[in-house]
Amino acid sequence: MEGKNFFGSFYDKVFEYVTNTDMWIEIGLVVLKIIAIIILSRILVSIVQAAVNQVFRHRQGNKLQMEQRRVDTMRVLVNNVAQYTIYFLALLMVLQQMGIDLRPVLVSAGVLGLAVGFGAQSLVRDVITGFFIIFEDQFAVGDFVTINNMTGTVQEIGLRITRIRSWTGEVFIFPNGTINQVTNFSLANTLAVVDVSVAYEEDLKQVESILKDIMTQVKTELPDVVADPQILGVQALGPSEVVMRITAECKPNTHHGVSRNMRAMIRTEFTKRGIQIPYQKIVAMPSKGQEHAGKEYS
């Protein structure tokens, strides 16, 4: 009898709990609030990202205009920080709706964060270094850089890592705390240097006059050249050629392409004007039989 009474009482309690309308209404309201928080957080992230993109949109003629390279870097960083902040606040609101007291959670998070700070010093160093990289504008997304002897184009700068991609496709990822040396090729104008070899038989004044005409064409046809190219004169005297040097100031990281175009234009114009570019010639020597026959013939 006692066992039946126990099971009967337990069944009655379970049935009463399951059929409690007020409880299910309350649970349903909590679930709806959680779903609403998730949806609203995603909508808020989209709105904030659209607003950030609008703020950092490149505007011509803006008095406070920044370089586009820095604008792209700041835009990505602000979007990431805003996204993480909104989702973190949404998580706290969800925990609050589930009846969890946030005060012990926040206190525990502070103590845990302090412990992690002591235990993960390299992570803290990465974050601090990443902040100063962005704040000091050492390099930005789209810059062509050499970091720790690895060269490529910056794809991403975060508070913890930096990602660059080489021209052959490899992607290098550096924790910011390990970045010891950076060479940025995109901050200032570069110099294209071209050495032109001509034969000793050519008139150097005529060659220089032709080069001036070519450099005028270079300044007109190559938009990456920002100043008049300079003909420096004779750079070296080789065994079979006179080497003349030409320089042209061009936009950041465009000197390789400008140099190739300048060489092609010089080669084409020299051929039209009849200027000889020295090259190695192979002279066939007569065989011993032919040499002997020639001597007998003479």
Automatic annotation (TrEMBL):
Keyword Transmembrane in annotation: yes
MF terms (GO), sorted A to Z: mechanosensitive monoatomic ion channel activity
Membrane association type: Multi-pass membrane protein
InterPro entries attached to this UniProt entry: LSM_dom_sf, MS_channel_1st, MscS_beta-dom_sf, MscS_channel_2nd, MscS_channel_C_sf, MscS_channel_TM-2, YbiO_bact
Chain's role: May play a role in resistance to osmotic downshock.
Family membership noted in the UniProt record: Belongs to the MscS (TC 1.A.23) family.
PANTHER family reported for this sequence: MODERATE CONDUCTANCE MECHANOSENSITIVE CHANNEL YBIO (PTHR30460)
Name this polypeptide is given: Mechanosensitive ion channel family protein
